[in-house]
Amino acid sequence: MGRPVDLTTIVAALDIPARPSSDYDLNPGVVLPEGRKLRPAAVLIGVLDDQVILTKRASTLKHHPGQIAFPGGKLDGDESVVQAALREAQEEVGLAPDNVSVLAELPPHETVTSYAVTPVLARIERDFDPMVEPGEVAECFRVPLAFLMNPANYAVEGRRWRGMRREFFTVPYGPYYIWGATARMLKSLADRVAR
Are 192 and 18 in contact (CB under 8 A)? Predict the structure, then answer.
């Protein structure tokens, strides 16, 4: 599973500078349009004891059906990224905001769907029974923090997308195929912890 890692180790690693990440990191030949507009969004990297909370998106969703994701979504009105991450976690999996201690905002991640997603790292103070919003979430599950913070568990895969080959990080765990933006954000954090 890798060496023991806890939130104290991760928070200490946040002193190491990090750059924003992108779905394009492994695809340097992609030319991004100048003046592109990115919509702000936020996700919650919620850690309960030694596990990270993840969701499997509902198969009926128009965008990214069945994919593994953090609870999160776009910002509403003038809310902050922290407010958005906490609101979305409550809506999607029933995680009460008063059960969450926010530790840090991580560098934003640009997605191929034109979002600038800010991951919010947080400690979940007490265990909770997830109550998933069935229109958005098929399942809420947990993955060991030490597994996700071990860079050796990540691989690069690729597939054709919009007529081009696109490469991306994956970090499969049991029956869960964690890839794309979710895997990239986790890999960025794992690399900082491993330094």
Answer: yes
At 141-170, the pLDDT tens digits run 999 999 999 999 999 999 876 677 889 999
Consecutive H or E run containing 152 = none
Q: Alpha-carbon distance 126 to 46, whole Å?
A: 11
DSSP H helices in the chain: 7-13, 81-93, 145-148, 180-194
Nearest to 122 by CA among 82, 150, 92, 91: 82
- pTM greater than 0.70: yes
> What is the rounded average pLDDT of the residues 75-83?
96
Contacts of 49 (CB under 8 A, 6+ apart): none
* Cα four-point dihedral sign 183, 176, 76, 120: negative
Q: What angle do CA 112, 136, 63 make, to 5 degrees?
A: 25
Q: Which of 118, 149, 126 is nearest to 12 (CA)?
A: 149
Q: How far is CA 55 from CA 92, 151, 153, 190, in A?
A: 9, 21, 19, 19
